[in-house]
Amino acid sequence: MLQHALLASLLLYVTLSTTVDVGYELLFTTSNAPVERTCYDLDDKIDLNGTYMVPSTAQMEMGIEKFTTILDAFGRMNRIEFIHNQFKLCVTQKMLDTKFYNRSKELDAVAPGSFFTETDPPRKCPGPLHLPGCNVIAMMEKEVDNTYVNTIKIGDSFFLVTDTHDWVEIDMSTLHIKGNAAWKQSSMDMKTMHITEIGSAHPLPLPMPGTGSNGDYISLKVNAPVRGSKTFVELFTVHSDTSPLVEDTLATVETSILVPGMPGAYIPYVHSFGLTADLGVITFQPLNMNMDGLFKGKMLADMFEDVPQMASTVIVITSIDGKNTQEVYIAPERFWFVHTINTYVDDDKTIVMDVTTADQNPLTSPAVNIPINLNKTARDAGAKSFGMSVTRLRINRATKEVILEPLTTAIRSTDFTRINTQYSGIKYCYFYANEWSHNLEAYGSMAVLKYNLCAMGKEPVVTYWRRHGWFPSEPIYVPREEPQAEDDGYIIFVALNGAAEESSLVILNSTTMKTIHEQVLPSRIAFTTHGQFFRNTLPSVL
Ligand SMILES: [Fe+2]
Q1: Which residues of the chain register pLDDT less than 50?
Q2: How many angstroms separate the alpha carbon of residue 459 from the centre of ligand 1?
Q3: Of 149, 166, 237, 531, whose CB is crowded by the most CB atoms within 10 A?
């Protein structure tokens, strides 16, 4: 009997471990069909009313030219309406009709411009110009608007944002791209000869304890010198009721203080940053953007340079009101980072900043490489050399010491972290994230996790949602209408069922992490970026 049980367990193990990542490749395979608004029933016990906007990488090629980095692909918006008083979910999926996408369709080839990596085969310049000339011109003329890493709402307008200062406005009712956001300030300062290309993909609402936020956002941009060596990183407010958008400068960091003796400019790459009600916290990784490459039409991956003499450094900006001071903290070891989970001042006055980190630049890692992800052997091998983990930075303002506390390990890669945004900038207990290599063998073995930071040493710290052969998107937390606790709400994501070759909307009870509703969607969804839920905001669709 024991032998039978062991054999059954072994067979189950073999079956599960061979089916665990079947269809993972579909996250990196074109799924770009337009879907007209299609409605389904929603459980009436789910008290959600609003719109979930989750962009996906949707088209991996044009003509014979294939993208080689996933974040370069043409994007699609997947809009899911939760209409509580009708107990309905309505789904609309539409390719983003950007200038870059339309131009590429006209050419039947990937249009000029700089992005992460060159296509395969490499593009040819249309017309009489030769690469890199046409890439430079496309960038200068703002034609490379393939922007969909994140979505934010300023006043009544919706903007798609990425790691550049160029936001793209989208009509959330028609899902039509309205064009580049109009900023009052120019992206080129002719007086000081600085150009603003790089920004943060994660603008943050200003945390206002007790009330949440007043609708204003704070973001970050990098003013890089065309000549000279001074780079300025600027934190600024975007007010909720202005058009064109006005940047109100809160603080400016001059970056040469971070890398003493560096010949030329140090131009940082800052995907995200931290905020409390009165502190701005910016992490600088030992990475320089050689912007000369931009003018030579190079791809982003060729512009990243290691800065071997630089430690990872944190700048704390006090009193983000224009009259600020800056404190510099050097981390004890070099690390690279992508996402800032949360930042707050702890009871002992140390600043706590939780970030996702790696021991190399994540934006050129195997995780974002399309050919590697399409090949199981290559992606599993890649996972042996790369993984993201969650690290807590404890910044002691009295001793000037930074302590790095690993919260997860890179053996199971963890990223796409989210929290209850009502706890942004204050002490919190929970984050939610995606995990890869969950079974410690296959990179495509994925899970959604809930991490209880307040339970360390007391009860299970991590709770999982997972299904064999299902690949979830970033799990976002949405509170119930009247939440009674930090985790009293829902976790929402889309998940690809690899074997069935279809995607579903999945809703979890965020307290238990158990599924409470799911709906198969009309068109499969490939690799997604950051989804957002806009409460009580529904499109005008008559
Ligand atoms: Fe991000």
Answers
A1: 2, 10-12, 14
A2: 30
A3: 531
433 C-alpha to center of ligand 1: Å?
12
Query: 37 CA to middle of ligand 1, Å?
Result: 28
SS (H, E, C) 136-172: HHHHHCCCCCCCCCEEEEECCEEEEECCECCCEEECC
pLDDT value of position 112 = 93
pLDDT score of 212: 67
Cα–Cα nearest to 514, from 485, 490, 480: 490
The whole-chain average pLDDT of the chain stands at 90
Element (H, E) at 4: helix 2-19
What is the CATH architecture assignment of 2-535?
Answer: 8 Propeller (2.140)
Distance 142 CA to ligand 1 centre (A): 22
Q: How far is the CA of 201 from the centre of ligand 1 (A)?
A: 6
Q: How remote is the CA of residue 41 from the centroid of ligand 1, in Å?
A: 32
Longest Cα–Cα distance of the chain, Å, equals: 84
What spacing in Å lies between the alpha carbon of 150 and ligand 1's midpoint? Answer: 7
Angle at alpha carbon of residue 110, lines to 105 and 115, rounded to 5°: 135
Q: How far is the CA of 308 from the centre of ligand 1 (A)?
A: 25
List, for residues 122-168, the tens digit of each pLDDT value: 998 887 767 778 888 888 888 889 999 999 999 889 999 998 888 99
Query: From ligand 1's centre to the CA of 377, what distance in Å?
Result: 27
Ligand 1 centroid vs 315 CA: distance in angstroms? 20
Does this model's pTM top 0.85? My answer is yes
Q: Cα(199)–Cα(211) distance, rounded to whole angstroms?
A: 27
Q: Report CA(528)–ligand 1 centroid distance (Å).
A: 11
Measured in angstroms, how far is the CA atom of residue 337 from the centroid of ligand 1?
A: 10
Ligand 1 centre distance from Cα of residue 271 (Å):
7
The alpha carbon dihedral of 192, 201, 62, 378 has a sign of positive
In order, the DSSP letters of 97-132 are: --HHHHHHHHHTSPPS---SS--BSPP--STT--TT
- Number of other residues whose CB lies within 10 A of the CB of residue 146: 23
Please choose, from the candidates 141, 140, 122, the residue with its C-alpha nearest in 3D space to the C-alpha of residue 130: 122
Instruction: Identify the residue whose tokens are 């996790």.
Output: 449
Q: Which two tokens stand for residue 173?
A: 């009712």
Quote the tokens at residue 539.
Answer: 């499109």
Q: How far apart are CA 25 and CA 72, in angstroms?
A: 17
Centre of ligand 1 from the C-alpha of residue 338, in Å: 7
Q: Mind listing the pLDDT tens digit for each residue in 448-483? A: 999 999 986 777 699 999 999 999 999 999 999 999
**End-to-end CA separation in angstroms for the chain:** 64
Residue 18: the pLDDT is 59
DSSP state at residue 39: E
- Residue identified by tokens 């930042």 is 343
**What is the number of alpha carbons within 13 Å of residue 253 lying toward its C-beta?**
30
